[in-house]
Design a protein that fits this description.
With 307 residues, the protein is mainly β. It contains 4 helices and 22 strands. Strand 21 and strand 22 form a beta hairpin. The protein is rod-shaped and about 125 Å long. The N and C termini lie far apart (111 Å).
Amino acid sequence: MHKFAEKVLQTCLLFFLPSSAYSLPKDTLLLKTRVFLYQDKVYLRDIARFSSSKPNLAILARPKQPVYLEKSDLKLLLQKTQLANDKVVGRQCLLVPMDRKVEAQELHDSLQKEILHKTKLNIGDFRLRYIGKDVHLPSQGVAFRWGHFARKLTPGRRIFSLDLYWKKRKIFSERLLFVMERKIKAVTASQNIRKGDTLLENKNYQLKTLFTLEKQKYLLSKNVDGYTALASIEAGELIRPKQIRQLYAVQRGSLVDIFYIKGNLFIRGRGKAKSSGNVGDNVQVLGHSRKKTITAEVIAPGKVQIK
């Protein structure tokens, strides 16, 4: 009973402790549980852990599709080698041949089709671009499915999972990096805009439909005529809410000069604006007596005239 417990403990140490924490006996080969094969030949160190003093033998050709290499299979392969008497620990190893390089366009087309199927987006609503590393997958005997992702996709760099199934069981998941752009309408500077300039559509800005990595909530998508630039904006730049402000010739709450002119009669007074407006707009002004609100036309910054 004592020897059995010792053997169980040894096996557990082989499987669950890293190689730095437990050294394998020189005559022992620990069969790995799953390996991904990128070369044409399968070497012993690909499928098993063993002492560095042993030779790394080429033991078989890479299979055409995923297959289990049983403990007994490995013993048979080693029969006519110098490792024939070594002990093999472990039950079986799943060999997964990664023998097909998948082109970026194929990944793009497959994911685009999946997004169109799972979301409410249309073909012209977004653009995808794969920016990850080279991808190798098995060429036979497996099925591929895109992992779950949000139905509402935001623009930016996004990782999508491509899951690999063999015999209805997921055996691998490849995390793939894409750039996703969304089509939006945004206010764009059509020329260089200086600080203090007033914005006018088709003069210094345009409402453009374009693809971008930026979220719509951080941009402007409505007419901003009459707004003032708070900083310099370069031509072609997407204009953001923090870069402009709607400034008026007469600002609500500010003191204004009130003029009344009729014939030779000229009256000037002071009042407080109760609404905002630019030159030509009518605003509400509270007169000096503060008893009555009157309507006046803005004629210049800080100046209104009673008509």
